[in-house]
Amino acid sequence: EAGVAQSPRYKIIEKRQSVAFWCNPISGHATLYWYQQILGQGPKLLIQFQNNGVVDDSQLPKDRFSAERLKGVDSTLKIQPAKLEDSAVYLCASSFGVRQTYEQYFGPGTRLTVT
Amino acid sequence: GQQLNQSPQSMFIQEGEDVSMNCTSSSIFNTWLWYKQDPGEGPVLLIALYKAGELTSNGRLTAQFGITRKDSFLNISASIPSDVGIYFCAGQFMNRDDKIIFGKGTRLHILP
Fold first, then answer.
1. A99: chain B residues, CB-CB within 8 Å
2. Given this model, what pLDDT does residue A103 score?
3. Which pairing describes strands A65-68 and A75-79: parallel, antiparallel, or unpaired?
4. Residues B6-54: tens digit of each pLDDT
5. Quick one: which of A1, A13, B40, B49 has the most CB atoms within 10 Å?
6. Would you give the DSSP letter of residue B83?
7. E strands, A31-109, where?
């Protein structure tokens, strides 16, 4: 079974530039999550989708972050414009069920450096 | 916001030693989860605990859900080199939405 795929693995941009990350979840998983993991911290949930609908985006900085999952499969997370404090690893995860306590399978993450 | 206090922050042990780490919260949790993250990878779920007092094992790993619902511990017995990594606890609140909160992690080092 293929795992959660993410691309790119690394990205370096200057502040005020835009960046987009892509995630393809495990086939058949209805729920997709985007997390932000700052160095030395645990992951923090940014947004949760069930199929193509948003379940929770309460911690997403909506003035600069956006995410979509148009066909209920893969998803894109965008930051526009980026700030220095956005430097982090962005993790995508998916799960079969809706509740977050269903086992979440994480991708390898995209490491973003904002200079 | 709500936080989990995970300790120790890092550990240096000899191969073969047992390891213990724990998480505490000022809030009551409905579920405790323990994850391991290797460098350059996403976290992998090790053990999930759903009931106060529950003690669950997964190979050499044992975790318990505290009776007060405000703490959990993870033990690793007879550590081996592949145990190196960052261990995260995560909790899901009672009477809240399903959001999971992660601790800051315990970084495990095994000395040669």
1. 98
2. 82
3. antiparallel
4. 999 999 999 999 999 999 998 888 899 999 999 999 999 999 999 999 9
5. B49
6. G
7. 31-37, 44-50, 53-56, 65-68, 75-79, 88-95, 105-106
